[in-house]
Amino acid sequence: MELYITVAILAFMIIMFVLQKVPMGVTTMTCCTLLAAFGILTPSEAFSGFTNESIILVAPMMALSSAITKTSIIPSVRRKVDELGSKTGMALIVFFYIIVIAFVQFIPATATFSIMVVFLATLSDEGEVTPSRLLMPMLGISCIWKGYIPIGMGATNFATVNARYSNIITEEAYLLQMFDKFKVGALPVICLTIYCLIAWKLLPRKGNVSTKGLKDVKDTPTLPKAQETLVYVVFVAVMAVLVLNKWTGKLMYIAPAAGVLALIYGKALKVPEVTKAMTADMIFLMAGVLGVASAMTKSGAGDLIGTAILNVLGGHPSSMAVMFLFSAVCIGMTTVMSNSATQNILYTVAATVCLAGNWDPRGIMLIISIANVISLGFPSGAAETALIYAAGNYKVSQVAKFTIPYIIIAVVTIAVSANFFYPIYG
Fold first, then answer.
1. Residue 232 has pLDDT above 60, yes or no
2. What's the domain range around 298?
3. What is the mean pLDDT of the chain?
4. Is residue 238 part of a domain?
5. Position 127 confidence tier, pLDDT thresholds 50, 70, 90
6. Is residue 426, in this structure, part of any structural domain at all?
7. Is the pLDDT of residue 28 over 60?
8. Interior angle at CA 319, CA 317 and CA 324, nearest 5
9. Are 348 and 164 in contact (CB under 8 A)?
């Protein structure tokens, strides 16, 4: 009976992720509550995700990253954008791409494009480089670069992914390391960046770029010089501990918390700001998924699902075929539904399949991590995608000449790179 109850709760979680009627953290907390209520897990087991090392690392890192937005870096970059308004040609394109790459490491993509769209709307639509030709490629740059560089939240990406499957596949050798995504993502990042540098000409030259309906992005007051310096020092120190985790060991998991405390005592961060960042829906989502994963392992539901999917794939499928399958399915799903829903469904499914097949899960997990943000083919893929389609007055058919080749390149390069570094048969 426990097995069927667990499968039913998992199905409920997946359906709620697709429908998104409530925040995803609420869904996972509901699942944990049900698992405890039905006796599948004890209350302490159901909510043990909150004490997981990955949560301890990620939650304060979110607060630490928010401190960067209070420094003079963001206003300085925005002023530079204004100064380059009169420039044209490839120099302008490259500069815009660099700004997007920098911004999406620290602030949400929707906020990034709220800033960039307002500026682009003032540019002329005469000549080769026009606003309607820049908007979609900038989204393409954002998709592939978001979380790629291991700084800011990108530095904890490996821990976030590990948290999604470590309760199903417990062998430590199969956990991701800090630079694994950077390594596997290099090929798709390079290929898609080159594509965006060339293929912007495929988009219509003239169009009406609109700022109507965009939320105003208010400038965050810049910290005093002393506090700003403290933010830089703390951020660099924490990043050093993360990068040198081979030597710093378990200190890696408490470094962000120590950094946040230093910023609170130094008056660079206020307690309400920290509380808001550390209680984001993402934290409840991650902790809840860990509880559901524990129940799947304990009840045998994970083995049941994994074996069923493995039977569909065949007894001994080609490693490359499996990589292509997950890459294509992930990008296909995230094109029409949210990034979060896509990854939260696929991480659990992929982990159970890998466990049943006795596969190395790292390549597949990295495929999901990289591919789930390739969401530029349809407006429903992500909030920033909807923003770009609305601001550029784009029709799906109108931009298909750009988006379809982008998606094909992404599917192929992500699968090939993941299979090269982490084939499922080791």
1. yes
2. 2-421
3. 83
4. yes
5. low
6. no
7. yes
8. 100
9. yes
